[in-house]
TrEMBL record:
It comes from the Eukaryota. InterPro entries: LRR_dom_sf (IPR032675). This is F-box domain-containing protein.
Length: 256
């Protein structure tokens, strides 16, 4: 391991295979410790085991983007990191089964970053937990987040999110102006989640400017009562899209 600071290193992408054996977190921490100017860290398809003999946190003062996807931060290895300048945080579902929710909370409390964008991609494996997010909003750890994106969240997760967003903006996510829900499954419709979303948007009128609900397939139709439910938000100037993504996607709110 080199001992001289890697001052020119600004972007680091650590990538493994899904079937790789877990590796030690210690050499990764040492590499990060030598990279004070690192701005972009991506950890993909990589599993780590605990580093119980680590004696201090690694502070990455210039880290702006942290993305952990497709791997397991086993034993809550986030507890060894601090990123006081972090602006974009992307987490994938596979970190949650082996990461204590408290590790994410502790990471945000320790870092106290000016976080602007939070992306949480759940996927279809493991139990989907949202306790950490609810606690983060209660503890005002996400007060600077203006862009929130959830991917493949199950209906009960979306319902919890909508309940949180029903609170006055001063009490939860006060800076939020963009909400994106990707790969939404049919179970959300025509059940109570549409009403929950409508109540959340009502609470956020004048604050939430852009809403995207990207459906998992293109075979959906929205009942007239659902379209009527959201008509007032369109009239108030909110940019709302409910439909599929990509070329040829149709906003079902505007469909005949």
């Amino acid at each position: 391991m080199p001992q001289a600071p890697l001052t020119c290193l600004q972007k680091l992408h650590i990538r493994g295979a899904y079937d790789d054996a877990p590796c030690s977190w210690i050499p990764i921490l040492e590499l990060l410790r030598l990279s004070p100017n690192l701005a972009d860290l991506r950890i993909q398809n990589t599993s780590f085991v605990d580093a119980d003999d680590v004696d201090e946190n690694v502070v990455l003062p210039n880290l702006r983007r942290l993305k952990c996807t497709g791997g397991f931060l086993e034993g809550s290895s986030l507890r060894w990191l601090s990123a006081p300048g972090l602006e974009t945080l992307t987490l994938s579902p596979s970190i949650f089964p082996n990461t204590e929710p408290g590790a994410i909370i502790s990471f945000l409390r320790r870092s106290s970053p000016p976080l602007r964008e939070l992306v949480v991609s759940y996927g279809y494996i493991g139990e989907q937990d949202f306790t950490w997010f609810a606690l983060c909003t209660t503890m005002s750890l996400l007060d600077t987040v203006s862009h929130l994106e959830l991917n493949s969240a199950m209906p009960h997760i979306l319902d919890r999110l909508f309940t949180i967003l029903e609170r006055p903006p001063s009490n939860a996510l006060p800076a939020l102006h963009t909400l994106i829900l990707r790969n939404v499954e049919p179970e959300i419709s025509p059940g109570p989640s549409w009403n929950g979303l409508a109540r959340a948007l009502t609470s956020r009128l004048g604050k939430l400017r852009t809403v995207r609900v990207i459906l998992a397939d293109d075979e959906w139709t929205l009942p007239q009562e659902v379209r009527s439910l959201f008509a007032e938000f369109l009239e108030d100037g909110m940019d709302i899209y409910i439909g599929t993504e990509g070329f040829g996607g149709t906003n079902l709110l505007a469909a005949n």
